[in-house]
Amino acid sequence: MNKTNKTNKVTPLRTLNTIDEEASIWLVRLDNGNLSDQSRKDLKIWLSADKRHPEALKAMADIWDDMDEILMTLDNKESSVKVSLWPILKPILKPVMLAASVSFIAIFLWLGTPNVEKNSYATLVGQQMDAIFDDGSIIHLNTNSLIETEFSDDKRIIKLIKGEALFEVAHDPNRPFIVYAGDRLVQAIGTKFVVHLKSEDIQVTVTDGKVKMSKVAINTALSDIKALNSTSIQKDDVYLTKGEKVVVSSDQAPILTYIKAENMARETSWLDGKLIFDNEELFDVIEEINRYVEIEIVLKDPSLHNILISGRFDLKDSDALIEAIELSFNMKSERLDSNKILLTKKL
Known about the structure:
- This protein has helices spanning about 15-30, 35-50, 50-60, 65-70, 85-95, 265, 280-290, 320-330, and strands at about 1-5, 110, 115-120, 130, 140, 145-150, 155-170, 175-180, 185-190, 190-195, 200-210, 210-215, 240, 245-250, 255-260, 275-280, 295-300, 310-315, 330-335, 340-345.
- The chain has about 350 residues and is an alpha+beta fold.
- Helix 1 packs antiparallel against helix 5.
- The protein is globular, with a radius of gyration of 22 Å.
- The chain starts with a strand and ends with a strand.
């Protein structure tokens, strides 16, 4: 399958978490044992760019004895050394790997069952990526998101573990395309739709075609997920067509709304590196912006929460966004630490 990457870093801030994530990615690439000449150069550049880089790589590498042998292959193009590190790394690096990718990370695993392909894709805060699959389907992964995919001869399953993704589904009546998020299954019926998994709810927006959403047990294995019956309706089932959006919260009935055509662009503006707001409360705007920037914007004063704001903002320029809020609403910003900015009302 083909992958196309979008690396829209919103801020140049380099945190220790980011360095650890990049180090973990290099470990996985080293484990694959087939670095290209360019990758070898890139790794050497990365190691020399910051004294913390080799320290981070070494700290992770110390968990096994054979890492020195792997690192030696950087200067040995003919080396065929390949050490299987993933079984050792998985329990230690999994919390980091779930959020890690310089532009993306695709961990390719073949299952024991023939014709079943399983992959994982993830983006960091402020980054996006596209994955184009052999069947023609395309997945656009938004900021700070993680999915697992399992494609077989009879179904295409995507588990959205966190974040948001837009799915452009290639029609294949013999292989249903199903997205599993939280306790819901969303099956495409030749369509284009967005699934956003938040801490408190699941949101599904259909930009073209039709989908069916059904309830499922949390933590269901992907191999156990079956195609939904599109000819019958069960309790908690919801059908959505173009221009419709459903929000499902825990233990509450789904809320279905219709999105006007002129407002649909706002729902997917992140695909173009923009955020569009129309008469929305500042608290909600800040919450949305914080999904895309490594520096958290804090709005503590309750009197500021309900201020209404409209505008189009470039995700690559968070400084301009903060300046616009300061000028428009007589506010000032104060950096609390390297990862946090406080917005307050000017006295």
